[in-house]
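Practice problem: predict the structure.
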Amino acid sequence: MSESNSVGIVKAQVAHFTQPLTLKSGAVLPQYHLAYETYGELNAAKTNAVLICHALSGNHHVAGRYSPEDKYPGWWDNLVGPGKPLDTNKFFVIGLNNLGGCHGSSGPSSVNPLTDRPYSATFPVVTVEDWVESQARLLDYLGIDQLAAVIGGSLGGMQALHWNIVYPERVRHAFVIASAPNLTAQNMAFNEVARQAIITDPEFFDGDYYNHGTVPRRGLRIARMLGHITYLSDDAMGEKFGRKLRHGDVKYSFDVEFEMESYLRYQGDKFAGEFDANTYLRMTRALDYFDPALDYDGNLSKALSRAKAKFVVISFTTDWRFSPARSREIVQALLDNALPVKYAEVTSAHGHDAFLMPDAHYHAIMRAYLEQIKV
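Answer:
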């Protein structure tokens, strides 16, 4: 897409909330703030709002750039903008950084106004349920009663699902992309290994590393390297790197020998320099805890019985972390409740990360459905 299809230069905003928020854990945030961005214009009837729910390492910067020199656009810039599948000439798009995040919303690295020091490990564990409640309050703050659509991939898809359980009257359409109704034991295991890499880092200091002037960089680096492996497919890794040697011949050492090793180390180092370890712990825990069927004797159909929206569920063939079979569980539960649902299983070599890619077929599905939504 050319820059003419971009939302252009954008600026983050911050909404402050003084009404206490009681979290699912029972902990209470007396006050908090949420960083968010908007693209497009809210129409007079306020019927064209679309909420984007981000995945584990995402944030409010969904589209556009912060300056003409900004090298990297928002994380879903290929999808959101004028003339793009989620067309900002039609929709008013909202992206936000969830509670517990590290990009402007209240989280472990932000200052606790009661102590004037970082929350650190005292910031409570947050859940998908807590995020949706805070998102609903943000919509109230913006004067929006009902969403034209809520859209999310991966962990964001879980939030889109929960919106329809607790606020069914506030959602007309829901997109659940590359997601699942809960994590498998294997997925929970990956998350635990990643957390242990961080927690056992000598510079973690029980989560109070801010006040020690350190960063558990090694642990966060390993956590990201592990996570990145699960986001890619074997085919994608093979096509991009295969067994290519970094220096052309074997050095018989434990330094970087293969291109794949170089790539993982680069991704780990980059992430460790940008993301907060305490936030990573909380985001992975939110993934673990999400299970809407738990309160319904494991019956997902009952959990979704209050939903009223029309659904689009999309999976990707090589996504082994959130496999198509998990998406079909969601589809079946929606059909059990006689809800309108369209399902697409997109052929892609990109694994779980496919939902972030500008795949022509995938984007055509999104565009065709979004064009039919009346605002």
